[in-house]
Amino acid sequence: MQTNDTITTQLNHRTVRQFTDQPLDKETLTTLYEVARRTATSQYLQQFSLIHVTDLAKKRRFASICRQPAIAENGDLFIFVADLRRNQQIRRQNGADDGRLHTMDLYLQGMADATLALQNMYVAAESLGLGGVILGSIRNDLKAVTELLDLPAMVIPVLGLRLGVPAEDHEQKPRLPQKLLVMENTYNDVLDEQAYQEFDRTLATYYAERNANARQENFTSLIAGENSTLNEKVTKRDDVLEVTHAQGLLWK
Amino acid sequence: MQTNDTITTQLNHRTVRQFTDQPLDKETLTTLYEVARRTATSQYLQQFSLIHVTDLAKKRRFASICRQPAIAENGDLFIFVADLRRNQQIRRQNGADDGRLHTMDLYLQGMADATLALQNMYVAAESLGLGGVILGSIRNDLKAVTELLDLPAMVIPVLGLRLGVPAEDHEQKPRLPQKLLVMENTYNDVLDEQAYQEFDRTLATYYAERNANARQENFTSLIAGENSTLNEKVTKRDDVLEVTHAQGLLWK
């Protein structure tokens, strides 16, 4: 393995959900925003924005929506949005129609811009000794999030990010081995039972031995067990297409 | 601004499309895959894979699809896919139905996993002195890409990434200022005409003065001009929903 400070940071990645009371200072925020701003962007369209949520009442609402009480208690909260509104405004200001902005293609470009920028900023934060957690759980009530941030049409929340000075230190959680994630030239559709069995054992050991919240679980039970999040049920998260359409996106 | 090696790398980011003949060595590949593998993943579902395309005939097809001839000539090519197939296999192997795997919610989780992992690996590569370019242009013919990589149902290409030892060095391209990208608590829907005019001037100067391919252009003309990529037209990229559905994804 090659190594340097950046890669060491990346390989040490773990989720942090509890932070000290110390909010990010202005210099750190400016640095992180600058990194986000410098991220690669699809066709140079720059279709993302990020909203720093500092209002305590709003943070409490996010804590409830994301079912993560600590959101209201510590850490800085950022919501990354796919933002096709800016380019719509520029087009309208210049007498152009909305063109391709309502297509799925353009929607996906905005989603990618926001996600790439978030990851880039997350790495920068970790390189400064900060910790964080990504919040896909904003989709637990996407409509509420959209209203909470006063998002106009053509803007949709993608992911949240909490950052702060870590106040907890977890063991690193195992991940599927490279041989299941990386392929060459063609998709490998053969189920490698042995690799999954090994991974089940690794993960079971991790769950049994970890300091906080030890339990009996493995990857197969997480994915296919009776309490799997993947089991059939309709949730508020299934509003996502409706909310996306209501925001004017992904029409065609 | 805070700084360290990681942030310096990130702030120096620029697109590189021409590489030397030297392919990535095995140690570098292993390191980059390890970084991708360590990336945050939505609900621990680990729904991405990456396919290293080394076959020259396939690279030629990508060069044609992406309209980037250099793809066939130099650099390593990786296609990141949202991979819900693994979890489908595990569920079927264990007698469970497909559960929520066909929902938009799960589709978006796979898209996010793939995009986050790509950006993380891209930063690691740049920290090693490599350069790269993200290929959204695989969506120029998503169906062809799907066939080229023999992707089964529940797997969809997200973005490509080319990496290599840079054989070109460009000026850094300007980006929209922080004040247009970063907001606090609420979306700012007021068109800041002065900020856009300033940015138009900055970008026009960049285009006029850059070494390669100098031209007369600004942000407004890119977004709203008569040759804007955003102008109304139906392209092969508008197959994306059809191909996504055909792959079994985003049904409900």
TrEMBL record, chains A, B:
Q: Does the keyword NADP apply?
A: yes
* SUPFAM superfamilies noted in UniProt: FMN-dependent nitroreductase-like
All residue ranges annotated as the Nitroreductase domain in the record = 13-163
What does the record give under GO molecular function? oxidoreductase activity
Q: Which domain of life is it from?
A: Bacteria
Q: Which UniProt keywords apply?
A: Flavoprotein, FMN, NADP, Oxidoreductase
What PANTHER family would the database entry show?
OXYGEN-INSENSITIVE NADPH NITROREDUCTASE (PTHR43425)
- Family under the similarity heading: Belongs to the flavin oxidoreductase frp family.
- Provide the protein name: Nitro/flavin reductase
